[in-house]
Amino acid sequence: MHFEYWGKDTTVTVISATPSPPTVFPLIASCGLSDATGPLTMGCLATDFLPTPVTFSWTDQSGKAISSDKYRQYPSVQNGGTYTSTSQLSISNAEWEKSEYFTCTVENASGKKHTQVNKPAVENTTPPHVFIIPPSSEELRANKTATIVCVARGFAPKDYTFKWFTDSKEFDASHYINTDAVEDKGYFDASSLLTVKEAEWKGSSMIKCELAHGRVTVSRNISSSAPDCSQCSATVDVHVEILPPTPEETLTQKGATLTCKATGLASQHNIKMAWSLPGGQELASGTPDITVVEGYITAVYEYKADLQKWASGNKFICTVTHDESLPSPKSIEYQRVIIKANEKSPAVFLLSPSPQETTSGHSEVTVTCYVKDFYPEDVYISWLHSDKTVASDRYTSTNLIPKKNENGASLFSVYSKLTVPLQSWTNGDVYTCMVHHETIQTLTKTITRNTDSAGACTAVSQDCSDYDSEEDDVGSLWTTASTFIFLFLASFFYSIGATFAKVK
Question: 99-112 burial string, b = 16+ CB within 10 Å, else e?
């Protein structure tokens, strides 16, 4: 197959070809939809149509038309005597969750065709509960052999693999038999039977059954010196961590929710988690929330701490108890650590859209808030449009950018990028960046687009009188800012321009 690209808006006339409507195919969004947090992309492929041009449109499950600024149509390319074209739709995860499918409609002079982009089926994934059964004393006496049974229950999907080891050496498959999995209401049970000579059973320091299921591998160990299954040990790699409260919560809602997260657990059953203070004083305990993704079990248990105690550096301890995963309860300690002497309030600068961006033909442009040189690192940025709160899916922030000052103290900076309609910016609408940091009351900086008497477009703020007096500092700021913004906004293929305002 050979494609020739004729260039955007090029019309090609094909002689003696039969006009035909497009044949349309869905292009499903990329893998990992359930974990996606950013925009999700799906597509629509139109082939074998004649003549050009062709027009794409999208609707959601209810039939509501999707705004054209959320999808792109690419130029048609010739394939023999007909043409091929594609459209790409980008939507938020929230929009995807609200609709079971999206419909792509493709039309040319020969007709109109539709196709649906459906959500992929979500397979039930549940990890197995694994245990091991020692040989019976009757078998040892009568046959001088030892049959050890490894049982896996309640797992899905069906795919799994048993392996056996003795003192780290893997048994050949001829030593064991795997039973066929038995299904019950979508879940499976299976077992594996290892048979060895009595002398090998008694001479081995440890025999291990290993079950691989999806991304999870579960092991159970047994030995002749500890044949009771209550003593069989689980060797699951369990990771426990404490996640701090979000800056949005601590800086705007005056709370401090600590999250204890345990991953890699052997099963979902009988998991207990507790919060306490040093010295053993219990704060909270209970059954955590459980999630299972591709067989990987995660347990989460939250505790809403007193904001002042959290901020002042009190210690909090989370303890996880799970006999199937841990030989003993596992505890982890959390303490907020800051250096009060290094506290520093942020400087805030607003960067307007570049001239290249405003004249590129795109329906949206970018306003950027640069929050510079602050400590501690917790900061929360929000936006207003004409004094109304902007939805959080309209802006994103970079990861914190660390550096050291001349004394070696840590400072942080961050950029927040707000996407606004070009028409709104052109009309002179007012946009405000709100910066929340514990060293200050909420700091606001406002920017709008004006036109001066000569007809030149400028970005101005509430207090532009400081601009001239700080020209050198602004020049230095722009050199630094443009570097980070280029990386941050690479998807736009434009660098931020030189027009911006600094406002106190």
Answer: beebbbbbbbeeee
Does one domain contain both 394 and 449? yes
Beta partners for residue 273, in sequence order: 286, 320
> Based on the domain organization, do 65 and 97 belong to the same domain?
yes
Q: What is the pLDDT of residue 382?
A: 95
Q: Is 67 helix (H, G, I), strand (E, B) or coil?
A: coil
User: DSSP letters along 120-177, please?
Assistant: PP----BPPEEEEEPPPHHHHHHHSEEEEEEEEEEEBSS--EEEEEETTEEPPGGGEE
Q: Are residues 463 and 490 in the same domain?
A: yes
Quote the CA–CA distance of 157 and 381 in Å, as a whole number.
43
What pLDDT is attached to residue 12?
52
| DSSP-derived 3-state class of residue 251 | helix
Q: Domain count of the chain?
A: 4
* Highest mean pLDDT: which range of 34-48, 145-159, 273-287, 311-325: 273-287
Query: 51 near 19, Cβ under 8 Å?
Result: yes
CA distance 168 to 295: 25
What's the domain range around 381? 342-501
Rounded to an integer, what distance in angstroms lies between the CA atom of residue 231 and that of residue 376? 48
Q: Distance (Å, rounded) from C-alpha 75 to C-alpha 7?
A: 7
- Helix and strand counts by DSSP (H, E) for the chain: 8, 37
State how far the Cα of 313 lies from the Cα of 311, in Å rounded to an integer: 6
Does some domain include residue 308? yes
Q: Where are the alpha helices (DSSP H) in 293-429?
A: 307-311, 355-358, 422-426
Distances, alpha carbon 149 to alpha carbons 9, 222, 385, 494, 504, in Å: 70, 11, 66, 63, 73
CA neighbor of 300 nearest in space, from 240, 260, 246, 269: 260
Q: Which of 118, 149, 183 is the last residue of a domain?
A: 118
